[in-house]
Fold:
Amino acid sequence: DTGVSQDPRHKITKRGQNVTFRCDPISEHNRLYWYRQTLGQGPEFLTYFQNEAQLEKSRLLSDRFSAERPKGSFSTLEIQRTEQGDSAMYLCASSLIGQGEYEQYFGPGTRLTVT
Amino acid sequence: KQEVTQIPAALSVPEGENLVLNCSFTDSAIYNLQWFRQDPGKGLTSLLLIQSSQREQTSGRLNASLDKSSGRSTLYIAASQPGDSATYLCAAPRGVWNTPLVFGKGTRLSVIA
Structure:
Protein backbone atom coordinates (compact mmCIF):
# COMPACT_ATOMS: atom_id res chain seq x y z
CA ASP A 1 0.00 0.00 0.00
CA THR A 2 1.78 3.10 -1.26
CA GLY A 3 -0.84 5.61 -0.18
CA VAL A 4 -2.42 8.36 -2.25
CA SER A 5 -0.05 10.04 -4.69
CA GLN A 6 -0.44 13.29 -6.59
CA ASP A 7 1.46 14.76 -9.51
CA PRO A 8 2.87 17.33 -9.90
CA ARG A 9 3.62 18.51 -6.37
CA HIS A 10 4.06 22.08 -7.49
CA LYS A 11 2.85 23.94 -10.58
CA ILE A 12 3.51 27.53 -11.53
CA THR A 13 1.56 28.80 -14.50
CA LYS A 14 0.63 32.05 -16.13
CA ARG A 15 -2.89 33.38 -16.03
CA GLY A 16 -4.94 32.02 -18.91
CA GLN A 17 -3.04 28.75 -19.27
CA ASN A 18 -4.59 25.32 -18.77
CA VAL A 19 -3.27 22.93 -16.11
CA THR A 20 -3.96 19.29 -15.31
CA PHE A 21 -3.33 17.46 -12.06
CA ARG A 22 -3.28 13.72 -11.46
CA CYS A 23 -4.26 11.68 -8.41
CA ASP A 24 -3.59 7.98 -7.87
CA PRO A 25 -5.70 6.66 -4.99
CA ILE A 26 -5.01 3.69 -2.75
CA SER A 27 -5.49 0.77 -5.10
CA GLU A 28 -8.63 -0.88 -3.70
CA HIS A 29 -10.41 2.36 -2.78
CA ASN A 30 -13.63 3.00 -4.70
CA ARG A 31 -14.21 6.64 -3.69
CA LEU A 32 -11.98 9.52 -4.73
CA TYR A 33 -12.36 13.13 -3.59
CA TRP A 34 -10.88 16.44 -4.66
CA TYR A 35 -10.56 19.32 -2.20
CA ARG A 36 -9.03 22.78 -2.44
CA GLN A 37 -7.23 24.57 0.38
CA THR A 38 -6.22 28.22 0.52
CA LEU A 39 -3.84 29.73 3.06
CA GLY A 40 -5.17 29.69 6.61
CA GLN A 41 -8.32 27.79 5.70
CA GLY A 42 -9.41 24.19 5.98
CA PRO A 43 -9.83 22.17 2.78
CA GLU A 44 -13.08 22.69 0.85
CA PHE A 45 -14.82 19.95 -1.11
CA LEU A 46 -14.76 20.21 -4.92
CA THR A 47 -16.00 16.90 -6.35
CA TYR A 48 -16.02 13.17 -5.78
CA PHE A 49 -16.27 9.88 -7.64
CA GLN A 50 -17.44 6.41 -6.83
CA ASN A 51 -15.56 4.15 -9.18
CA GLU A 52 -15.76 6.00 -12.53
CA ALA A 53 -19.00 7.88 -11.78
CA GLN A 54 -18.76 11.51 -10.74
CA LEU A 55 -21.37 11.77 -7.99
CA GLU A 56 -21.26 15.45 -7.13
CA LYS A 57 -19.64 18.74 -8.06
CA SER A 58 -19.48 21.61 -5.58
CA ARG A 59 -20.65 25.03 -6.64
CA LEU A 60 -17.00 26.01 -6.09
CA LEU A 61 -16.24 24.04 -9.25
CA SER A 62 -16.84 26.56 -12.03
CA ASP A 63 -17.23 25.48 -15.65
CA ARG A 64 -13.48 26.04 -16.10
CA PHE A 65 -12.87 22.99 -13.93
CA SER A 66 -13.36 19.41 -15.08
CA ALA A 67 -12.53 16.14 -13.39
CA GLU A 68 -12.46 12.59 -14.67
CA ARG A 69 -11.80 9.16 -13.28
CA PRO A 70 -11.58 6.83 -16.27
CA LYS A 71 -11.90 3.13 -15.43
CA GLY A 72 -12.32 3.98 -11.76
CA SER A 73 -8.59 4.19 -11.10
CA PHE A 74 -6.59 7.44 -11.23
CA SER A 75 -8.29 10.81 -11.55
CA THR A 76 -7.40 14.04 -13.30
CA LEU A 77 -8.47 17.58 -12.45
CA GLU A 78 -8.14 20.13 -15.25
CA ILE A 79 -8.41 23.88 -14.87
CA GLN A 80 -8.86 25.84 -18.07
CA ARG A 81 -7.99 29.54 -18.47
CA THR A 82 -6.45 29.75 -15.01
CA GLU A 83 -7.04 32.83 -12.88
CA GLN A 84 -5.04 34.16 -9.95
CA GLY A 85 -7.87 33.12 -7.65
CA ASP A 86 -7.20 29.51 -8.59
CA SER A 87 -3.92 29.63 -6.67
CA ALA A 88 -4.32 27.07 -3.89
CA MET A 89 -3.34 23.61 -2.70
CA TYR A 90 -5.37 20.93 -4.49
CA LEU A 91 -5.78 17.82 -2.36
CA CYS A 92 -6.94 14.38 -3.36
CA ALA A 93 -8.30 11.77 -0.95
CA SER A 94 -9.60 8.24 -1.29
CA SER A 95 -11.68 5.90 0.82
CA LEU A 96 -13.25 2.46 0.71
CA ILE A 97 -17.03 2.56 0.94
CA GLY A 98 -18.82 -0.57 2.01
CA GLN A 99 -16.52 -1.78 4.76
CA GLY A 100 -18.06 0.36 7.47
CA GLU A 101 -15.16 2.65 8.21
CA TYR A 102 -15.10 5.43 5.55
CA GLU A 103 -11.77 6.89 6.65
CA GLN A 104 -10.39 9.25 4.05
CA TYR A 105 -6.68 9.17 3.22
CA PHE A 106 -5.10 12.23 1.68
CA GLY A 107 -2.28 12.68 -0.78
CA PRO A 108 0.53 15.26 -0.48
CA GLY A 109 -1.33 17.81 -2.59
CA THR A 110 -0.50 19.87 -5.66
CA ARG A 111 0.33 23.49 -4.96
CA LEU A 112 -0.78 25.72 -7.84
CA THR A 113 0.54 29.24 -8.26
CA VAL A 114 -1.00 31.37 -10.99
CA THR A 115 1.09 34.43 -11.90
CA LYS B 1 -25.75 22.36 6.53
CA GLN B 2 -22.70 21.07 8.33
CA GLU B 3 -20.38 23.67 9.82
CA VAL B 4 -17.22 22.87 11.79
CA THR B 5 -15.53 25.26 14.17
CA GLN B 6 -12.21 24.82 15.92
CA ILE B 7 -11.03 26.65 19.00
CA PRO B 8 -8.44 27.99 19.63
CA ALA B 9 -7.09 29.10 16.27
CA ALA B 10 -3.54 29.00 17.63
CA LEU B 11 -1.91 27.61 20.72
CA SER B 12 1.62 27.80 22.08
CA VAL B 13 2.68 25.54 24.95
CA PRO B 14 5.94 24.49 26.61
CA GLU B 15 7.23 21.01 25.96
CA GLY B 16 5.75 18.33 28.20
CA GLU B 17 2.41 20.02 28.72
CA ASN B 18 -0.87 18.17 28.16
CA LEU B 19 -3.29 20.02 25.92
CA VAL B 20 -6.80 19.87 24.49
CA LEU B 21 -7.98 21.00 21.07
CA ASN B 22 -11.68 21.62 20.58
CA CYS B 23 -13.97 21.02 17.63
CA SER B 24 -17.70 21.68 17.32
CA PHE B 25 -20.07 20.69 14.52
CA THR B 26 -23.65 21.68 13.76
CA ASP B 27 -25.14 18.52 12.22
CA SER B 28 -24.90 15.61 14.63
CA ALA B 29 -26.30 13.10 12.11
CA ILE B 30 -22.83 11.82 11.31
CA TYR B 31 -21.36 8.32 11.37
CA ASN B 32 -17.78 9.38 12.17
CA LEU B 33 -15.40 12.28 12.66
CA GLN B 34 -11.74 12.53 11.69
CA TRP B 35 -8.80 14.43 13.11
CA PHE B 36 -5.89 15.30 10.82
CA ARG B 37 -2.45 16.78 11.17
CA GLN B 38 -0.98 19.10 8.55
CA ASP B 39 2.62 20.25 8.45
CA PRO B 40 3.37 23.52 6.59
CA GLY B 41 3.02 23.10 2.84
CA LYS B 42 2.15 19.42 3.13
CA GLY B 43 -0.90 17.22 2.74
CA LEU B 44 -3.09 15.88 5.54
CA THR B 45 -2.19 12.94 7.74
CA SER B 46 -5.11 11.12 9.33
CA LEU B 47 -4.61 10.86 13.09
CA LEU B 48 -7.81 9.35 14.40
CA LEU B 49 -11.21 8.30 13.10
CA ILE B 50 -13.98 8.06 15.70
CA GLN B 51 -17.06 6.10 14.75
CA SER B 52 -20.44 7.39 15.93
CA SER B 53 -20.79 4.27 18.07
CA GLN B 54 -17.59 5.11 19.93
CA ARG B 55 -17.01 7.84 22.48
CA GLU B 56 -13.22 7.75 22.40
CA GLN B 57 -10.35 6.63 20.21
CA THR B 58 -6.72 6.46 21.23
CA SER B 59 -3.45 6.32 19.31
CA GLY B 60 -0.25 6.65 21.32
CA ARG B 61 -0.26 10.03 23.09
CA LEU B 62 -3.40 11.12 21.26
CA ASN B 63 -6.94 10.63 22.50
CA ALA B 64 -10.01 11.88 20.68
CA SER B 65 -13.53 11.98 22.08
CA LEU B 66 -16.85 12.43 20.33
CA ASP B 67 -20.10 13.68 21.88
CA LYS B 68 -22.73 13.76 19.14
CA SER B 69 -25.46 15.05 21.43
CA SER B 70 -23.55 18.25 22.13
CA GLY B 71 -21.91 18.44 18.69
CA ARG B 72 -18.39 18.39 20.12
CA SER B 73 -15.13 16.52 19.74
CA THR B 74 -11.85 17.03 21.54
CA LEU B 75 -8.31 15.97 20.73
CA TYR B 76 -6.13 15.44 23.78
CA ILE B 77 -2.36 15.41 23.34
CA ALA B 78 -0.36 14.10 26.29
CA ALA B 79 3.19 15.12 27.11
CA SER B 80 3.55 17.40 24.09
CA GLN B 81 6.82 17.44 22.13
CA PRO B 82 8.29 19.97 19.67
CA GLY B 83 7.62 17.45 16.90
CA ASP B 84 3.89 17.84 17.60
CA SER B 85 4.04 21.39 16.22
CA ALA B 86 1.65 21.48 13.26
CA THR B 87 -1.90 22.46 12.34
CA TYR B 88 -4.59 20.09 13.58
CA LEU B 89 -7.78 19.85 11.55
CA CYS B 90 -11.12 18.40 12.55
CA ALA B 91 -13.48 17.16 9.83
CA ALA B 92 -17.03 15.86 9.89
CA PRO B 93 -19.06 14.40 7.02
CA ARG B 94 -21.83 16.58 5.65
CA GLY B 95 -24.38 14.19 7.08
CA VAL B 96 -25.16 10.57 7.60
CA TRP B 97 -23.85 8.61 4.59
CA ASN B 98 -22.95 11.96 2.99
CA THR B 99 -19.24 11.42 2.85
CA PRO B 100 -17.54 14.61 1.60
CA LEU B 101 -15.87 16.14 4.62
CA VAL B 102 -16.42 19.59 6.05
CA PHE B 103 -13.31 20.95 7.74
CA GLY B 104 -12.67 23.46 10.45
CA LYS B 105 -9.99 26.09 9.92
CA GLY B 106 -7.64 24.22 12.21
CA THR B 107 -5.66 24.89 15.35
CA ARG B 108 -2.03 25.87 14.80
CA LEU B 109 0.00 24.31 17.60
CA SER B 110 3.51 25.33 18.60
CA VAL B 111 5.33 23.28 21.24
CA ILE B 112 8.30 25.19 22.61
CA ALA B 113 11.38 23.26 23.75
